[in-house]
Structure prediction request, 320 residues.
Amino acid sequence: MIPKTMKAVLLNGVTQAADIKFTRCSVPKVKPGWVLVKVKAFGLNRSEQVLRLSEIEKDYIKKPIIPGIECAGEIADASDSGFETGQKVVALMGGMGRRFDGSYAEYALLPVSYVFPVYTGLTWKQLAAVPKTYFTAWGSLFECLDLKYSDTLLVRGADCDLGYAAVQLAKALGCRVIASVSDESKKPFLEEADEVLIDTGNLSDKLFGATKALDLAEVKTLYDTMHCVMRGGIVCSAEAVHGESALEKFDPVKDIPNGIYLTGFHDNSPNQDIINDVISFLDMHHSAPGMGAEYAFDDIAKACADMESGKVTGKIVVYI
Prediction:
């Protein structure tokens, strides 16, 4: 039975992690084209931190808003969607947590086009680490870089949840993987990589010969990354820092080395095929999604504070 009220995080203005509080509000009423999902767990993302600390003041943000751009859960009310009550699903993006309420709640009303059925033995916590992070990693590696087992892949800025996912997927495929991190303390978290380099901003001085590169660092490293791949190589930029001005004077003729290809992955259009591919790949290789830490929903303020401070290395998952 669906209750009348639920516990949720509701933002109406700039909110520090320590000030995050729960609100008791009505469970959303289902409507055509939307489904009600009982949230089991969700991952934390930097974009939610940006929303909470600054973007919440923008006019285009629906207020008050329940944040959260992804979740794993089960269908509580299928409406006219064709889903079945109790069906296991993940949901992500499409304006979730910005244009309409997101996943920091016990229930979420979501447009059916951004809700995807999944068939897997992964736990709720493991599944919650997949949607945003592995969708972006998969799209970057396979749609943009056309990654093959014979490639040597550089993952620049690999000391983040997306970097770990990219290294995991590439190694499972059979690639040689070189990862760069910001300091020595992050090296143990990337033991799957064949080589881990400390990134001082000039990797091209010590590395050349990668056939593909995924740049997850700040945009200003992109010029150097393009000099780390051999002729015919491809560089993909993903998760660039918002507001970065380093490319304002970017000249593709002068700044892209001859014979190097540059692409980028935009992650706001998830689809069922990629979700199926990711889950099937993980199951086939008996790989569990990497997680940095798990927090109960009651500890959401601490989870957000620990992400903000950089205390946790890897994906933070919150379970209900």
User: Anything to note?
Assistant: The helical segments are 46-53, 124-128, 131-144, 161-173, 222-225, 252-255, 272-284, 300-309. The radius of gyration is 20 Å. The mean pLDDT is 91.
